[in-house]
Amino acid sequence: DMAEPIQQLTRNNNPQERQSIPFTLIQRKEKLGDLLYEKRQYGKAKWACIKMKEKQYEQSICLGFMKLMRYICEQNSSGLYLGITVPIVTIVHTNEAQSAMTQAVTVAYYLPEVLQDQPPHPFDSDIIIEEWPATIVYSR
């Protein structure tokens, strides 16, 4: 099922072709010279998002990522490979009291700059295009 998207990604797995999402570094946490995480602010932008709720948290992330890869690798209204932007963002959801994680996660792909004004429509109805306001992201 994922053979074509993986082949497409492999053919296009040139580091120069990966677009880093523009951000402002807010904080950088290191321990003994190793980077633990960065706190970043991303500007307002359009993202392709999918919310998953599988039994296992990791399963939700993997399945959501695979669905986004299909969208990136031609299963969109343009019929074209859209290009990779990094990072792919995972949003962990909490219960109403914000005391525990839920099984639901959102996996999101930043649409490349050239597609921000008119993003291709996904064929998968589970994927939605959202415009996010400026957003804080923790990255490892």
Automatic annotation (TrEMBL):
InterPro entries: Reg_factor_effector_dom_sf, SOUL_heme-bd
Pfam families in alphabetical order: SOUL
Annotated GO MF terms: heme binding
Recorded family membership: Belongs to the HEBP family.
Listed name of the protein: HEBP1 protein
Natural source organism: Prunella himalayana
Top-level taxonomy: Eukaryota, Metazoa, Chordata, Craniata, Vertebrata
Gene giving rise to this polypeptide: Hebp1_2
